[in-house]
Amino acid sequence: MQVLLLIGGLFYVAVIPVLFISWLEFFHHDRDNLTQQEQRISIVMIAIASVFWVIALPFAYLELLDKFKRSSRAAKLYQQMLEAPKSQSDEIQLSNH
Questions:
Q1: How confident is the model at residue 28 (pLDDT cuts 50, 70, 90)?
Q2: How far apart are CA 47 and CA 45, in angstroms?
């Protein structure tokens, strides 16, 4: 039992730097419009989220999933909008013949 706890603890600790580095890279790509204070707060939040990754990671995943669903719905709507005039013009051409 102690071996399982040790392995779980080591896994938990090993994931922290991996997530911190990954999230810090995302942050560096998207920090253009932030003040110095906002950048410091963001880095602190990344550190806290990395330590509590067991809680933060599922919420981050759910947020990404929600964004994907919204963009997927928007893409379907745009596709329907693009196809609608085409089908209406086909109907007009068929009725003229």
A1: confident
A2: 5
